[in-house]
Amino acid sequence: MVSSALQITGLLIGGIGVIGTFAVTGMPQWRVSAFIENNIIVFETIWEGLWMHCIRQANIRMQCKVYDSMLALSPDLQASRGLMCAGSVLSFLAFIIAIIGMKCTRCAQSSWQAKDCIILTAGLLFILSGAVELIPVCWVANTIISDFYNPIVNVAQKRELGEALYLGWVAAFCLIAAGAIFCCFCRCCEKTRSYGHSAPTHYCTHNQRLHRKTESSYSKSQYV
């Protein structure tokens, strides 16, 4: 009962991480315009994402345009495209594998050893997808902070951390937490099964000793 609840908890946390990863990949709020110093154009907000940039005017109208060329993006956003797509695929694959490896799902000719291998694979994929997602999120955040405090960069070109970055950190944490839960669950199951297999061996050896003692007593009585 406890193991099933632990698996369901890991699957729910992993599902939240998968949904968050897909949302972060498509959101345009990676870089948000900063209203500092002489930048008094506060009625217009600029969003820059991996696939498009948007301009929102006074919370009324929003216009978005897809980037004309990938070469027009900065190096961090170019790399973030590939890494986020890879993280999305890995997280979704880990979620499907975790569903297959759960105890409540039954597959043809599936043993508990096969289930443990599947759960362990899902856990490792969750951790890998979370690490892959952390790289672009932290990279873009570091670039934004460096440009913000760089006096050479023009004030109009400075940006702030967008909502997509914060959501990316949460999603990556959920993926890594789900992977840790599945890996720890598999480790605990191996220990309990090893203890369970070792106990009958001692019991059998104890019975064999009793049987030998009774045989020796019978032989002595027969001799007398």
TrEMBL record:
Q: What does this protein do?
A: Claudins function as major constituents of the tight junction complexes that regulate the permeability of epithelia.
Where is it located?
Cell junction, Tight junction; Cell membrane
Q: Does the keyword Transferase apply?
A: no
Q: How does it sit in the membrane?
A: Multi-pass membrane protein
Protein name (database record): Claudin
Molecular function in Gene Ontology: structural molecule activity
- Membrane-crossing residue ranges in chain numbering: 5-24, 79-105, 117-145, 165-185
PANTHER family (alphabetical):
CLAUDIN
Q: Which UniProt keywords apply?
A: Cell junction, Cell membrane, Membrane, Tight junction, Transmembrane, Transmembrane helix
Highest rank taxon of the organism: Eukaryota
